[in-house]
Design brief:
The protein has 65 residues and is of the alpha+beta class. It has one domain. A three-stranded antiparallel beta sheet has the order 1-2-3. It has one helix and three strands.
């Protein structure tokens, strides 16, 4: 069965020592919570999920930099 609908709750928290954000993503269907050290990690994770890839985990983009 193809899943054509995804729903998430996103929370952002600004780090006081830097001009960056932490993010928490909660799957509205499964209540799974994933934490991200940056907004870039969150966006990469979501792009992978929307493209059908579910193997992307937070922090995987560190090797790309």
């Amino acid at each position: 069965m193809k899943n054509d609908y995804q729903a998430y709750l996103v929370r952002f928290q600004r780090r006081s020592e830097a001009n960056t954000w932490r993010a928490t993503l909660e799957n509205a269907h499964s209540s799974e919570v994933v934490q991200f050290a940056s907004e870039k990690e969150l966006l990469l994770f979501l792009l992978c999920r929307l493209s059908g890839r579910h193997d992307k985990q937070p922090g995987d983009d560190q090797a790309d930099e």
